Amino acid sequence: MIELVNLCVRYRRRQEPIIKGVHAKFKDKHLILGPNGSGKTTLFRAIAGLAPISSGRILIDGVNLDEIHNKPGVLAINLSEVHHVFHLNAYDHLRLFMDFTGGDLDLTVEMLEDLGLSISLLRKRKPWELSAGQRKAFSTVIALFSNAKHVLLDEPFEQLDPARKGRLIEYLKEYKGILLLNTHETWLLSTLKDWSTHLMFEGKLFGPMYAGNLVKVNLVIGDMPNAMLKFTISGKMYSLMQGKVGEPLSKLITLDRIYELSLS
């Protein structure tokens, strides 16, 4: 289990924290849905020990993050910067990483090929020489098959075509373990209906609710009575409501559109 206790993250040149007093527990498969710039990646970087914590705590199975940082088998993340350490081609890097973590090389190669990354391509290029979409797929697959108990996937569907998105979804559904996935794409709500979900805006988490329940709600500007969930963005109140009033959350395509709604 990953537990966040009053977590704040602030970079030196910013007076206002990026992550603002977050409390949450993640025990299974979990979706964090928010617009770009809401703090999703910073939150994942903090959980992975890659961003400074200003205050609060991060506990992994009840143990402080500082005590288990870099310990194999505990946590994996799909940030491509993690794979820029060694001057090896992508395939040799993959083999080294699987040897170190005890991951399944054959299954990893199978999934990479399923997502359009052939062994011949990986042998020709270093990880940072892959395209942006290829780097994301490469780091996502390594994280999933790294034999870690907790896996963090930051926007894993970026720049994947619909067919490859579908293949990745099937792997995610079959995955056994604690998995946190962040995204701005609302179509995932209907695809991952049984996943627990938080919304994230301006460094704060709201929820949790099941993704399947969020498919049925509308987004309304204002403080509405009987709202399922209320949150504030840039000083403006929003409510999630059942019924015919407002914009269906699942039809926004991306939560970046919430800023367009606030101007309408």
Describe the protein's architecture and organization.
The protein has 264 residues and is of the alpha/beta class. The chain has 2 domains: 188 residues, P-loop containing nucleotide triphosphate hydrolases (Rossmann fold, 3-Layer(aba) Sandwich); 68 residues. The protein is 30% helix and 28% strand. It is built from 10 helices and 14 strands. A 6-stranded mixed sheet has the order 6-7-8-3-9-10, sandwiched between helices. Strands 2-1-4-5 form a 4-stranded antiparallel sheet. A 4-stranded antiparallel sheet has the order 12-13-11-14, with no helix packed on it. The longest helix is centred in the middle third of the chain and has 13 residues. The protein is globular. The mean pLDDT is 89.
Question: Key features?
Answer:
264 residues, Rossmann fold, 28% strand, alpha/beta, 6-stranded mixed sheet
SSE diagram, text form:
Elements: E1 2-9, E2 19-26, E3 29-33, H1 40-47, E4 55-60, E5 63-64, H2 65-68, E6 75-77, H3 90-101, H4 105-114, H5 119-124, H6 132-144, E7 150-154, H7 162-174, E8 178-183, H8 188-191, E9 196-201, E10 204-210, H9 211-214, E11 218-221, E12 229-233, E13 236-241, E14 247-248, H10 258-263
Parallel strand pairs: 3-8, 3-9, 6-7, 7-8
Antiparallel strand pairs: 1-2, 1-4, 4-5, 9-10, 11-13, 11-14, 12-13
